[in-house]
Amino acid sequence: MDCVLCHPQKENVVWKNKELRVIQVDDPLFPGYFRVIWNKHIAEMSDLTDDERQLLEKVLLTVEKVVREQMQPDKINWAQFGNMVPHLGWLPQTGAELHSLLARDACHRNHQH
Fold it and tell me: What is the pTM of this model?
């Protein structure tokens, strides 16, 4: 399997260790868009060991604190993905970003019918 998360073409990695990495996504519509990506193919959080979950939580909360401090959003919304490839990944979103994603999704669904 040629996994786009195992072999990314271009990433802005802001932090990494052997288990996971944090990337900043270059998307002008979503300026606070970071992803926390587990490096191994693991589809669900319950597949992690207790120590791995603790590490993940520490990194997630650190990213959230930095985004809140630097961007001062009204709210941080976390989304957990892994639908397309078996990697755990999370992204924080400000309220405006979530609204844009929901609007984009509704528009996409309306055009499919």
Answer: 0.73
